[in-house]
Specification:
By secondary structure, the protein is α+β, with helices and mostly antiparallel strands. The chain is 18% helix and 33% strand. The strands form three sheets. Strands 4-3-6-1-14-11-15 form a seven-stranded antiparallel sheet, with helices on one face. Strands 7, 8, 9, 10, 16, 17 and 18 form a seven-stranded mixed sheet that branches.
Length: 286
């Protein structure tokens, strides 16, 4: 049960506080259950990816907590991991960075050796053992094959894995400075999107407050979003905001630098070899 969170403010750089802001209603509580790592990815002032992650639950490392709560960027990707492929190490902890982009994945697939054969020289981008990082390398390969079109790369990569490998889910968030892509595929794991305006938007013309979303698995606070619009993607609908929408199976969302949102179902076929979730899995949205 990995959890995803993505946020973009377009071209605006905003400061966001993550992780242990409102324990126990925070990613601290979730990290005590998902004890295989946690991390945040964002972009520095020059646009280079910055990864702040550890292969231990967030509550065990006060320094990690302090640094994560002070991140500033135009886009963020956060993740809490329950390992399915690859042991507990910093190399296997999400998010990952390749070619100036940041990615995290919620789900799993097997027969990873077949994917490695498909990657060719792009296998050299992979540092760890996870299926997720290899999925990102395939996205990178396919984006290059589609003239740098990241959305086309995500769709092509997910289609290939879905057609050839046993799949639970390929939900992913990919971010670049000022941009964000999110795919939900197939329909096993939940993924939601929220388009959040800036300025007066409440009854009576009250100003939109800074973003402060909470649940049993996440807590994020971005006061600067009182005056800047944003788009949020998350594994679960977070309290504090209305207007969440569940992505359809196979739906790819692209948030552009001007915060316009393009959404399209890019994969209509179910996986050829699906691996259903079992039991009371919290990734199944209610």
């Amino acid at each position: 049960m990995c959890r995803l969170f993505g946020l973009t403010a377009g071209t605006a750089r905003v400061r966001a506080e993550f992780w242990l802001l409102d324990a126990p209603d925070s990613l601290e509580a979730q990290s005590r259950r998902n004890a295989d790592g946690s991390g945040i990815g964002f972009f520095g002032p020059a646009g280079a990816p910055v990864l702040d992650k550890q292969p231990e639950p967030a509550f065990r490392d006060p320094e990690f907590t302090r640094r994560a709560r002070q991140a500033e960027s135009s886009a963020f990707v956060a993740h809490v991991r329950l390992a399915t492929v690859g042991g507990r190490s910093v190399w296997n902890t999400h998010p990952f960075a390749m070619h100036g982009r940041i990615m995290a994945h919620n789900g799993g697939f097997s027969e990873v050796a077949r994917l490695e054969e498909r990657l060719g020289p792009y296998a050299g981008l992979v540092a760890g053992d996870t299926d997720s990082e290899r999925y990102f390398a395939l996205i990178t390969q396919q984006a290059d094959a589609h003239d740098g079109d990241v959305g086309a790369g995500i769709a092509a990569a997910a289609r290939w894995i879905g057609a050839n490998l046993p799949v639970t889910a390929l939900n992913t968030i990919v971010a670049a400075p000022g941009e964000l892509w999110a795919l939900r595929y197939p329909g096993e794991h939940a993924l939601h999107v929220l388009q959040r305006p800036a300025g007066p938007s409440r009854a009576g013309g009250a100003a939109q407050p800074g973003l402060h979303v909470r649940s049993s698995t996440s807590s994020v606070h971005a006061p600067a979003l009182q005056s800047a619009p944003s788009v949020v993607v998350a594994s679960e609908r977070l309290d504090g905001e209305t207007g969440w929408r569940m992505l359809a199976p196979g739906e790819l969302v692209h948030v552009r630098p001007d915060l316009s949102v393009r959404s399209e179902v890019v994969i209509t076929q179910p996986p050829a070899r699906p691996v259903p979730l079992t039991g009371q899995n919290p990734n199944i949205d209610t």
